[in-house]
Amino acid sequence: MTDFIELDADCLAYTAAGRPSRQPILFVHGLMSHRGVWARTMEALQDEHYCVAIDLLGFGDSSKPAKGDYSIRAQAERVLQTADRLGFAQFGLAGHSMGGQIAMYLEANLAPHRVRQLASVSGVVTGRLSAYVRLANMQLVRTGRYFPWFYELFHTLSRQPRLANWMFNVWFADPAKVPFESWALDRRQAMNPAIYVSAYEAYRTIKATDLTPMLKGLSMPVLAIQGEQDGTVPVTDTRLLKEHVPQTDLVLFEQCGHFPMYETFETYIKCMKAFFQN
């Protein structure tokens, strides 16, 4: 079930699972993604936690204002406002990709004493994505900013498994091994013409936000998860997190790309359960 929170003139969509009386965890998705990426994770954790996944402004079912502030700081402030509206005095945070960048920024700069635990799943640290993403994927995002019909074109092409596996090759270590329908919604959300502004602006702010100097501000337990074959965020970002934040539990999965929650779910969720249950 989708619920909404009004922030100023905009609405943020969110999905909740579990009992509100349990320890809360907020889940934050990545660039051109949506809250549904956390569906299986929330299902697995809901017996022990109150799980809330939000659609960031500009993505999923949330508002997509053409002149919205899509900076990492602004998105982090909205996540914190969501926690306030839901009455979370303290909470766990889990962020994927850009969502990891947002979660780390929030803890280091906005609410250092309110985040109990932080899980960074393929999280961005330096702001510098892989060479392939910078030179290929993001050129298409730039083009789509001025020609939104590009998204419709690529959404049509992505319905064919071979083309989709080629188009999204930076998502998985081996796209052919991930059931095609299991990430159909992710393809649709990534190719949604309505995100033509937010996707471009979000990419620009990812590049402009290097968290390295802020990492010393992370004071709570951290879980850093990533696939060794991640083609989107360099694995060096996750290693950097471990280097600067001694209390980080670093877990790297073999034969796994940018989405451990899809490619190596059983080992991934075992790590997430152990981390948040402590």
Mean pLDDT: 96
The CATH architecture: 3-Layer(aba) Sandwich
Domain module count: 1
Distance between the termini: 29 Å
CATH class: Alpha Beta
Secondary-structure element pattern, one letter each: EEEHEHEHEHHHHHEHEHH
Number of strands: 8
Strand residue percentage = 15-25%
Poorly predicted tracts of residues:
none
**Topology-level CATH name:** Rossmann fold
Largest sheet entry: 8 strands, mixed
Describe the strand arrangement of the main beta sheet, using strand numbers: 1-2-4-3-5-6-7-8
- Output the structural class: alpha/beta
* CATH homology superfamily name: Alpha/Beta hydrolase fold, catalytic domain
| Number of continuous helical runs | 11
Helicity range = 40-55%
Task: Summarize the structure in words.
By secondary structure, this protein is an alpha/beta fold. The protein has a single domain (about 5-275), classed as Alpha/Beta hydrolase fold, catalytic domain (Rossmann fold), CATH 3.40.50.1820. The chain is built from 11 helices and 8 strands. It has an 8-stranded mixed β-sheet, sandwiched between helices. It is globular.
Short description, anyone?
It contains 11 helices and 8 strands. α4 packs antiparallel against α8.
Notable characteristics:
Rossmann fold, alpha/beta, 278 residues, eight-stranded mixed beta sheet
